[in-house]
Amino acid sequence: ATRRFINWSQTGVATLAWLRANPVQLVIATGFIANDHDGVPTTLGRDGSDYSASILAKVTSAENCIIWTDVSGVFTADPRVVTDAVAIPIMSYKEAGELAYFGARVLHPDTMVPAIDANIPIRIKNTFRPQDFGTVIFDPKNPTQFTEDVILKEMASDATVSLPKIPVPVKGFTSVSNVALVNVEGTGMIGVPGIASRMFSALLSENISCILIAQASSEYSICAAVPGNQGAMAVEVLKKVFRAELEEKLISCVDATFSNSIVAMVGENMQLQKGILARLATALSNAGISIRALAQGSSEHNISVVVSSDDESRALRAAHSAFYLSAQTISIGIVGTGVVGSVLIDQIRDQRKELLNRFGVDLRVTALATSKKMFLGEPSVNIDDWQAQLKESAVPADLEAFARHVKNSNTPHAAIIDCTASEVPSALYETWLRQGISVISPNKKANSGPMSYYKAMREAQREAQTHFFYEANVGAGLPIITTLRDLLRTGDKFIQIEGIFSGTLSYIFNEFDGSAPFSAVVSKAKGLGYTEPDPRDDLSGMDVARKTVILAREIGMTIELADVPVRTLVPEALSDPEISSDDFLAKLADYDGELGAMCAEAAAAGEKLRYVGVIDAENKKCCVELRRYPKSHPFGGLEGSDNIITLQTKRYNKQQLVIQGPGAGADVTAAGVFADLLRLASFLGAPSAAMET
Question: Most distant CA pair in the chain: distance in Å?
Answer without folding.
Answer: 118
